[in-house]
Design goal:
single chain, 173 residues, mainly alpha, 8 helices, rod-shaped, membrane
Length: 173
């Protein structure tokens, strides 16, 4: 019967040979090379997937510390326009709220030539207010492209509320 000490002695004898040292050196070199390649690949994949948009947004907010204050002031202007209640102010409030959300999405690194393309990159799992914001954006498009459209105060309030929820969800307001 083989004792544990015999197994230990057999293994120790194998590790004493100079060939094992060369094998260990090659194993280390190959392991380091594979690790470096994998780390490099991860960096490339993360940069291509735009998974670091939140880092860029956080850094941008440090560079511009008054950004949340400016957004809050702009949002107060939008609410003032809603309180006026005249049709021009209501339309302008919706357009400005849409522009505010579009600016935030741009800062987050969302690509696209317009707000519609940026919204298409999101879904309801990523952005809970997606459906409401999409409906508000459609109303905004009607306002911009059909000059004679009439909107009610309720429509304007519902649209700006959707934009406000979206901005809160993105932790801007």
């Amino acid at each position: 019967m083989i004792s544990p000490f015999d197994i230990y002695n057999q293994l120790a004898d194998k590790f004493k040979f100079p060939e094992f040292g060369r094998f260990l050196l090659w194993a280390k070199l190959i392991s380091y090379s594979i690790s470096t390649l994998l780390i490099f690949s991860m960096i490339i994949l993360l940069s291509r997937s735009r998974a670091t948009w939140w880092v860029a947004e956080r850094l941008d907010s440090f560079r511009k510390p008054n950004l949340p204050e400016r957004m809050q002031k702009d949002w107060e202007k939008i609410n003032d326009r809603l309180e006026k209640g005249d049709e021009a102010s209501l339309k302008l409030a919706i357009i400005e709220a849409d522009n505010m959300l579009e600016d935030v999405l741009k800062r987050m690194g969302m690509e696209g030539k317009d707000m519609g393309e940026r919204l298409e990159q999101l879904n309801t799992e990523q952005f809970k207010s997606y459906n409401d914001v999409l409906e508000a954006h459609r109303l905004r498009n009607l306002i911009v492209h059909q000059k004679d459209i009439l909107i009610t105060k309720e429509q304007a309030e519902r649209a700006t509320k959707a934009y406000g929820e979206g901005l809160k969800e993105l932790e801007v307001l």
